[in-house]
Amino acid sequence: MTAAALVALLLLEAKHFLFDFVLQSPYQAKNKGVYGHPGGILHAALHVLGTAVVMVFFLTDLPLLLVFLIAEFLIHYHTDWAKAHLVKRSAPARGAEFWSIFGFDQFVHHATYAAIVFAALSS
């Protein structure tokens, strides 16, 4: 189980890098701070799609996988929205406050993946 957990986590981290940094379009990045905007919804949905592709190899309980995917969508969407909203309001310059907000945003995403892997492989 330890090896499977590490592989799953590593794959989710690679997926996160791809969808948050390499493949994220300016349309998605610009609109994540507008609640309900299709750009932010698309961004979170693409993350969920990537998580589904990874986790289908580690979790055969499809209803449970669906619960994890819905939870990830809600957490990812709202974390990104809050980060964008906070940056606009209180840290528009890229100083220490910006990096603290950005770092916490990334921490929440990575903690979500750890929780998904732990719950999936403990079930």
Automatic annotation (TrEMBL):
Source superkingdom: Bacteria
Pfam family, one: DUF3307
Keywords: Membrane, Transmembrane, Transmembrane helix
Transmembrane segment boundaries: 48-75
Keyword presence, Transmembrane: yes
Protein name per UniProt: DUF3307 domain-containing protein
